């Protein structure tokens, strides 16, 4: 999503943050959080990676109502040095990376209306706080998010934001992970969506491909529908290790020589996970 045309909204600071102003949320807005939270909390156990449920618990996000970002930040700071800061909506890429590189997660302060319950274009408070924040309590994932922010600032300098945005998209937003001999959800875009939490694991149509940074960075993504491809990591440790060990400058140069891949493409060398299990087979020769 190109965010360069964004104008800094009235009342936002230089770094695009605004006060959350928790006291101003209405009963309806708190009720919207509770409705969304209860629906997901009921269907995610055994579907979402264990560390996500542990994060909900340790951050005490199980209580009713929209979480107070200052309270979340106090707990997160002690666990992994992260804090949650309020923004009016999308912020320019560079600013976004700057915040992540300094362990500040930018969360929209607005929550969706009943008409938007199952789809909204921009990340709202439920997507950002329920989807993204619990895993920031996990030290390895917290390190990955900071490394991503630092990588983003470097990619910006190399004109490679689009490639790096794909890494965020196919891991932080829509990633799957192997755990206890099955596939589990961890991407915020999935776990904050009722429909996609079902689709990503149970539907036979999407491709579930073994994680490979270069292959992933060639792969386009769509922002207006369920994913056609998901990438599966072995563990957060493995994701962090591969990211930190990759020298992105030569990788970006290689990527410039290779064509982008359409969302549903399968390559012969792809490792394909069948729905819901660990087993994967090398892609059959696809004509
Ligand atoms: N801004 N508030 C906010 N939240 C995001 O998730 C976000 C953003 N700006 C840019 C962005 N994400 C993506 O383009 C990143 O991949 C850069
Ligand atoms: Fe997000």
Report on this structure.
The structure is a single chain. The mean pLDDT is 93. With 287 residues, the protein is α/β, with parallel strands linked by helices. It has one domain (22-286): Aromatic amino acid hydroxylase (Phenylalanine Hydroxylase). Helix 4 (93-101) packs antiparallel against helix 6, helix 6 runs antiparallel to helix 7 and helix 6 runs parallel beside helix 11 (236-245). The protein is built from twelve helices and eight strands. It has helices at 27-43, 50-58, 69-80, 93-101, 125-132, 139-158, 161-173, 188-191, 194-202, 213-218, 236-245, 248-257; strands at 83-87, 104-108, 176-179, 182-185, 207-210, 229-233, 271-273, 280-282. The chain has a four-stranded mixed beta sheet with strand order 4-3-6-5. The two termini are 32 Å apart. The site of 7,8-dihydrobiopterin has 11 residues, from helix 4 and helix 7.
